[in-house]
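Mods, move this if it's the wrong board.
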Amino acid sequence: MNSILLCAALLAAAQSVPHPAAPSTDAATQASATQASATQAPAANDWPRYLGPEGTAVAPWPEETFTWPKAGPKVLWRQPAGGGYGGAAVAGGEVFLFDHERGERDVLRVFDLDSGEELWSAGYPQEGRLNYDGSRTVPTVVGNHVYTTSGFGPVACFDRTKRELLWKVDVAEALGGRKPMFGWCVHPVVFEDLVFAAPLNKDVGLVALDRATGEVRWRSEHLGYTHSSPTLVRLMGRWQLLLNACNDTASGRDKPAPSTLWSLDPATGETLWRHDLTLCGLPVAQPIVVGADRNQIFMTGGYRAGSVLLNPRWVQQDEGEPWGVERVDEVFRSTRGSQTHQPILHEGHIYVLANENWNGSRRRRSEGGLVCFNLEGEELWRTGDDPNFGRGGMVQVADAFLIQDGYKGTLVAARATPTGYQELGRFDPFEIRARDGQLWAPPAVSGTRILMRSQDELVCVELSPGVKIGMGPVKLFLLGGQSNMDGCGLAAELPAAFQSHPDNVVTWDHKREAWVALTADSMAIARDRQFGPEMAFAHRLATAYPDHTIALTKTSAGGTKLHTQWVPGKGMYERFIRNFRDATAQLDEADVEYAVAGMLWMQGESDSSAVETAEAYEANLKLLVAGVRKDTAHAALPIVMGRISSSLLKETPWNFDQAKTVQAAQEAVAAQDKQVHIINTDGLSTLKDNTHFDTEAQLTLGAQMAELMVEALSKEPRRPRR
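Not the wrong board. Structure tokens:
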């Protein structure tokens, strides 16, 4: 029985702190926790831990219904990775992957979400080999810290700011841990100022480590042995850690075995209650909380363990006292079980990837596949061998499941419905020739992208069907410039009025080649996760033209110069026009009515570093204006320009001695061209470098640009639309 059983070990389930804003009603029936004292609520596109922001394998999605893209998914990037079974986490536009360099070291690798570029890595020496070598777990990202668990035992904390290892505790050496069959597989689980580890020896089950130092804060009693991870849930008003463990050494035999469901107090490690049952001799998948009252527990396992729905009988000795468990009743049992991956609850139905050793052979695959149960235990449908997903992982987006086939890595989308299996589409991002490529790592979703891992690489796949632009005629604005068009505005500092964005604003994502909703991301060439003047500009224009769609194409890059990069024929100008043409080509293809309405320009700092470039600025700016009007076929295109700030003449890290000359050139062009409008930015606040506008200044600049643009458009004669 080729210990393919190992896969169980490799994908030990776990979740770290969930947060209050649940992606769906059913997701809320599982853990929904806020730990404001210890964590930040994840951003909308973050997948900061195993099973995502809520610990439910449910991803936020921009639409209520998932639509398979007409042109099919697109691989945005791919990066080589060592063999392993640990999936990715995403936070703040960065992708975190825990990797193992065979026999040498464990390493945390960090990639840029948009480009796939490896930004940094840090690790520690780690010799040895494991059965089925490679990483086991998904990192957990909390603020500036990243927590990892190695299959060899170390639990580690990395500092994102310093890009280095902060502390490491080896549960085998320091805590006398006993290695499970396939190594330690507990994903880091965070609660307030604690992170949990699992020595799993004859005296200790779980330990809580101080998140800041790694010091042991509490130890639980012996719990048994497991490849599963503790699940943080709130049951009957009380935080609890649920852990499924077998009573003896994990066996991995294809038969049910004695096991125990433990409930611990996450603050102290005290056992709150336990329930002995026959389920799985090598637990991997975690329990999930189900039921209308959020007090039932569904458990599943491989090795012919099947699944069971448990109904704890809650009792309260005195009013105001915590609820306890008098006994646990079984509501139903099924012979179908998931060996490795988490079941998902959706609209009162449980969906399980019933794929394990026992039904893994071709002869028995009809016993597995994706299965749908109702809460009474009735099996409503099962895919069996058509299709069979092996030990692949599954996440939910809107009303659909995204499933990574465990054999070849094929991505399959299927509607989440109790009426039967409805496949929406499939896509093969890998070229796997082996019969079973062991693509068992759990996928992660960020925005409209899914991250998938094989035994050789990590890939990022775009799933966006494209933003629907149907809210009336489109007014299209082009934005260009250098760092102050890129923007140093911080999303974390946005006032409440800018926390949510108008529905009638879209921006062109040149990296994904798609129209997307407005966010606090700048969409700049070389600066991400910050914003420029487009934020306040878009909000104001959306209000001024509520019956239109406001569409923005932004091309900017810090440090770029007008005389060498922005005049027609040069690199930035050509990129600027290419982005415009790509964006409008999609509008044309979709038969969307649009008009090129105006342009915003914020640039000139770099040209003020030398006399010759400053003195040539006026002529070069006229070349830019003429080129844009020609290439947009709008001879009187309104242009709103921010004059570079006089703060550049103060002490800065750069030389801007000729700033006054550039200012005069900008004012001269505006004076000579009635359709060029200029804003004096001298009163705008900057960062300490006296160069880059801060958050408040960017919002002010964007609002001023909007007012000038609205005024200019009100005087513009009507032009035919496209």
